[in-house]
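re the bet — no i am not wrong, look at it urself. input seq straight from the record:
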Amino acid sequence: MKDGLVTHRGGCHCSRVRFEVDAPARIAALDCNCSICRMTGFVHLIVPASRFRLLAGEDALVEYTFNTGAAKHRFCRHCGVKSFYIPRSHPDGVDVNVRCLDEGTVEAVEVTPFDDGDRERSTAAIAHLSAE
């Protein structure tokens, strides 16, 4: 893969939802402290939409929105796992749950806090993540 990217595969717990994402083998992830991320333990890998491919399970996904409705939280209707979604901070990208990636292609994960209490500053600091 070009630019030091590898193709990671992943999905939900029951494997009905499967995807691929092109990202570095050494992942720079985010840990957001907002209510939904904190409660679900989501570890964020934000990529441009062009680097994400849903392989299976479109028909298994249900969507949940709240507050501004900008974030499109997509869950498997069978097992309840949210393996990816469209984030409010990057509506032109896809946010993959690092915890839902298959073993074998991830060399390391470095996790950086994302402070939802200072959303504007935190979002500005990661604006580059969904850029082509």
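see?? Residues 119-125 form the longest helix (7 residues). told u. also The mean pLDDT is 90. so pay up
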